[in-house]
């Protein structure tokens, strides 16, 4: 969830809805990277299981939490730049009325 308004410029952030897309996408990407790195480490060094847990659990948690801030901010910026809006009400009615060209 974003703040209601930007502290610097006063932009109304409540009209933007980036949803959970960045979280799912980011988690899948980080999961693939972590699995690849863990397999590489295991093949190269063969550490005990507790070393894997000590390395990869905090790394994964920090990467997801830190990456969420960046990915949600990037998606909000993309919505603002492209003037994206939520479909609903008069927006949906006017766009579907123009599609009846058969």
Describe, in plain words, how this protein is organized in 3D.
It contains 3 helices and no strands. The chain has a domain at 17-83. α1 (21-45) packs antiparallel against α2 (49-81). With 102 residues, the protein is an all-alpha fold. Helix content is 65%, strand content 0%. The chain is elongated. It has helices spanning 21-45, 49-81, 90-97.
Q: What characteristics describe this protein?
A:
single chain, 102 residues, mainly alpha, 65% helix, 3 helices, transmembrane, elongated
- H/E series: HHH
Whole-angstrom Rg? 21 Å
Distance between the termini: 42 Å
- Shape category: elongated
Question: Could you outline the blueprint of secondary structure elements for this entry?
Answer:
Layout: H1 21-45, H2 49-81, H3 90-97
Helix pairs in contact: 1-2
Keywords: Membrane, Transmembrane, Transmembrane helix
Transmembrane segments: 21-43, 49-68
Protein name: DUF983 domain-containing protein
């Amino acid at each position: 969830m974003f703040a209601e308004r930007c502290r610097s410029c006063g932009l109304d952030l409540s009209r933007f809805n980036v949803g959970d897309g960045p979280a799912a996408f980011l988690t899948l990407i980080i999961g693939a990277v972590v699995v690849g790195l863990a397999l590489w480490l295991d093949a190269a060094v063969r550490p005990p299981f507790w070393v894997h847990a000590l390395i990869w659990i905090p790394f994964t948690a920090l990467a997801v939490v830190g990456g969420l801030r960046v990915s949600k901010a990037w998606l909000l910026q993309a919505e603002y730049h492209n003037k994206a809006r939520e479909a609903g009400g008069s927006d949906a009615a006017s766009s579907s009325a123009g599609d009846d060209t058969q």
